[in-house]
Amino acid sequence: MLRPTAAIVSAAVAGGHGVGAFNVIQLEHASAIVAGAERAGTAVLLQISENCVRYHRSLAPLLEAALAVAAESSVPVAVHLDHIESVPLVREGSLHRIGSVMFDASTAPYEENVRVTKEVARFCHARGIWVEAELGEVGGKDGVHAPGVRTDPGEAKEYVAATGVDALAVAVGSSHAMTTRDAALDYDLIAAIRSTVDVPLVLHGSSGVSDEGLRRAVEAGITKVNISTHLNKVFTDEVRDRLGDAKLVDTRKYLGPARDRMAGEVARLLGVLGAVPAGSVR
C-alpha cells in the first residue's frame, strides 16, 4: 500500500524504530525491496536518486513503476527521491505521487544551501511532500560525508530552523559507496545531535556500517537508514554466480534469483533496524 513518508517516519519516531530506505535502480530492485518488507512485516521506503534518473535518462518510467509496486504491496511503502540536486527535478517529481524528497545542496556555501533548501521545502510542503536535507561543510567543499567531516549539533539546529526541513542527513562517520562494513560511527555525536535537533535524523552511507553498528545508530537517535551499495553487491554476487553457466541467455534466469536473494537481505536488514511494524503506520 502506498503511504506518505511522513506517516512511516512518524510511526518510527513514536515507537523508537528504524526506517529502511533502499535505493531502486531497476524494477527488480523495487520488487525485491517490497518483497523483503512483506516478508519482514514492516514498512519500507523505495528511493530513486538523481544519479539513477540520469542513468535511465528520464524520471517518470522508473518512478511510476516503483509507485505501482508500492501500491500493490501488502505493507506500507513510500517512494522517495534521493540526493536530488536539481530544483526542476523536484518539481517534476511533485507531479507524481512521491512521498518525500531529499534535496541535496550540501556542496553549496552554507548561505546558498539554506536559501535554496528553504525554497524547495516551501514548494514541497505546499504539495504535502516531506523534505530531507543535508548539511554540508561550511564553505561547501566536499559535502557532509567527506572523510573526517562531522556535523556540528549547533549548526544543525540553526540549519533546520532556517530551512524548515522535516529530516536531516548527518555526518557521523559513514561514507557513501563502501563495499566493506567497517565504518566507525560516532554514537555520542548522534545522541548529541538528536538532543539538539527536533527533526528525525538520517544516516547516509549505511552500506559501510555493520549490523551491530546499525542497531546502535538507531538506539542513539538515527531514524531513517539509507542502504544502496550493500544490496547492489548482494544482487550482483548472485548474477555473477548464475552467469558461470555459459549457456545461460534468458535474463530472467539470473535476474530472478538475484531479486530473490536481495529480498532476503532486505528482510534481514529490516530486522536489524527494528523497522516499523506494518500495523503501526496510520
Question: Can you offer a commentary on this structure?
Answer:
The protein is of the alpha/beta class. Helix content is 48%, strand content 15%. It has helices at 5-15, 27-40, 50-56, 60-72, 87-93, 110-125, 153-163, 187-196, 211-220, 229-242, 252-273, and strands at 19-23, 44-49, 77-84, 100-103, 130-134, 167-170, 201-203, 222-227. Strands 1-2-3-4-5-6-7-8 form an eight-stranded parallel β-barrel, surrounded by ten helices. Helix 7 (153-163) links the parallel strand 5 and strand 6. The longest helix is centred in the last third of the chain and has 22 residues, at 252-273. The chain is globular, with a radius of gyration of 18 Å. The N and C termini lie close together (11 Å). The model is unreliable at 137-144 (pLDDT under 50).
Short recap of the structure:
The protein is α/β, with parallel strands linked by helices and 282 residues long. It is 48% helix and 15% strand. It comes from Saccharothrix mutabilis subsp. mutabilis.
